[in-house]
Design goal:
It is a single chain. With 469 residues, the chain is an alpha/beta fold. It has a single domain (10-462), classed as Glycosidases (TIM Barrel), CATH 3.20.20. The chain is built from 14 helices and 16 strands. It has helices at 17-20, 61-75, 86-89, 100-115, 131-137, 144-160, 180-184, 195-219, 241-263, 269-276, 287-291, 341-355, 385-403, 452-462; strands spanning 10-14, 79-83, 119-125, 166-170, 224-231, 234-236, 297-302, 306-308, 316-317, 324-325, 359-363, 373-374, 380-381, 408-411, 434-436, 448-450. The strands form five sheets. Strands 1-2-3-4-5-7-11-14 form an eight-stranded parallel beta barrel, surrounded by five helices. Strand 9 and strand 10 form a beta hairpin. Helix 2 (61-75) packs parallel to helix 4 and helix 6 (144-160) packs parallel to helix 8. The protein is globular. The N and C termini lie close together (10 Å). It holds the Pfam family Glyco_hydro_1.
């Protein structure tokens, strides 16, 4: 049976400022945590930016945004997920007055999107905490971060209240469990970070996120604010009861974040989690009331599923931010991420059953090594049938979930134009419909070329999914 996606479904693509903009030190921009991690989010941290950091130039979106947005419009995008670089607006993060040149840049980007009737979907903080806030305040460990974030979001909401309808407060907020520096700007070494400090930092972020939701609704009631979590369904390796309980515990460690965002309070299972880890959340007056400012929708990234087992000996696979036990029934990408399209339907159903809130798939895609070739007409392109199959199979499952009764707002596959990998800072790990001629050795013209998947996705959008197989 042929299925057509809803007419108001938001088709588009997703990116992040630190992985594409470049111009890391232009027009008053300050340094972020990304500027001192040349090997990616899990690599060494340098004192200053180094020439081998691919993110410093990215794909030069800062100077080429008009060309890039025009290409997205050619595909028929209804929405474009981007992030704002905090350090373009407040270079250090703790200033009282924002940087006008940074604000104007995003005015120009949003105007360019709206010219083509593309709705901006804006991530407020996407793995780019100002470096100054990491060094001086130890990032989100420090409660003062809530004040800095409040000033930042208030500036954004007032400036763009008539241009941006959809906002996400933090990217993959639950990733702070595994990448505290990249995700939370926490300078304390991961091995020295106590559970008390980590969960207190998480509390600060959750309060800041709820505060942002409150402020957005006060400034413009039509604005929609969502949380953004890393979704990774966990399957028990066997039906052994011990495996089932381990699966439940791992699943809850991630669900804690969306539970607070959607329900407005800490779930009951958190009490035991905190007690057994020696955690006592320091609540300030008004925190519990602030948390009641719940999100309008839930957005998430989905790349893969994992397994869990109570066995001490287990074969681990690679993964997005954190690895999991390998599933013997699934194939994997070149980077070892296991491919599970049905897992996306599973996530959509379980989240909707749990929350009854609109869902937005804001990341999904296949990182692969692409080969630029010439077609019969002499045009440079990439025959990325592997990417088309991956996206096709996942979108079929999105369609199944919608037929299951799940309310899905839209779909923005990751890296719709090639950009620098967050985890490894590579460019050879490509996700886009658009090939960017830049390479890990720094060479390349930065020219853009349409891949085979470009026209395929254009047809997906124009046919409302009618060409999916």
């Amino acid at each position: 049976m042929k299925f057509y996606f809803p007419e108001d479904f938001l088709w588009g693509g997703a990116t992040a400022a630190n992985q594409m903009e470049g111009a890391y030190n232009e027009d008053g921009k300050g340094l972020s945590v990304q500027d001192v991690t040349p090997k990616g989010g899990f690599g060494p941290i340098t004192d200053e930016p180094t020439d081998d950091n691919m993110k410093l130039i990215g794909i030069d979106f800062y100077h080429r945004y008009k060309e890039d947005i025009k290409l997205l419009a050619e595909m028929g995008f209804k929405v474009f997920r981007i992030s704002i670089a905090w350090t373009r607006i407040f270079p250090l993060g703790d200033e009282l007055v924002p940087n006008e040149k940074g604000l104007q840049f995003y005015d120009d980007v949003f105007d360019e999107c709206l010219k083509y009737n593309i709705e901006p979907l804006v991530t407020i903080s996407h793995y780019e905490t100002p470096l100054h806030l990491a060094k001086v305040y130890d990032g989100w460990k420090n409660r003062k971060m809530i004040d800095f974030y409040e000033r930042y979001v208030t500036t954004l909401f007032n400036r763009y209240k008539d241009k941006v309808k959809y906002w996400l407060t933090f990217n993959e907020i639950n990733s702070i469990l595994h990448a505290p520096f990249m995700s939370g700007g926490i300078a304390t070494a991961k091995e020295k970070l106590t559970k008390q400090d980590l969960y207190q930092a998480i509390h600060h972020e959750l309060v800041a996120s709820a505060l942002a939701t409150k402020i957005a609704h006060e400034i413009n009631p039509n604005m929609k604010v969502g949380c953004m979590v890393l979704a990774m369904p966990v399957y028990p390796m066997t039906p052994k009861p011990e495996d089932m309980m381990k699966t439940l515990e791992l699943d809850r460690s991630n669900l804690l974040f969306s539970d607070v965002h959607v329900r407005g309070y800490y779930p009951s299972y958190a009490k035991r989690l905190f007690k057994e880890n020696g955690v006592e959340i320091q609540m300030h007056d008004g925190d519990e009331e602030l948390l009641k400012n719940t999100v309008d929708f839930i957005s998430f990234s989905y790349y893969m599923s994992i397994c869990e087992t109570s066995d001490e000996i287990k074969e681990m696979g690679a993964g997005n931010i954190f690895p999991g036990v390998k599933n013997p029934y699934l194939k994997a990408s070149e980077w070892g991420w296991q491919i599970d399209p049905i897992g996306l339907r599973y996530v959509l159903n379980t989240l909707y059953d749990r929350y009854q809130k609109p869902l937005f798939i804001v990341e999904n895609g296949l990182g692969a090594v692409d080969e630029l070739i010439e077609d019969e007409q002499g045009n440079k392109t990439v025959n990325d049938d592997y990417r088309i199959k991956y996206l096709n199979d996942h979108l079929v499952q999105v369609g199944e979930a919608i037929q299951d009764g799940v309310e899905v707002m839209g779909y923005t596959p990751w890296g719709c134009i090639d950009l620098v990998s967050a985890s490894t800072a590579e460019l050879k790990k490509r996700y886009g419909f658009i090939y960017v001629d830049r390479h890990d050795d720094g060479s390349g013209t930065l020219e853009r070329y349409r891949k085979k998947s470009f026209n395929w996705y254009k047809e997906v959008i124009s046919s409302r999914g009618g060409n999916l197989k």
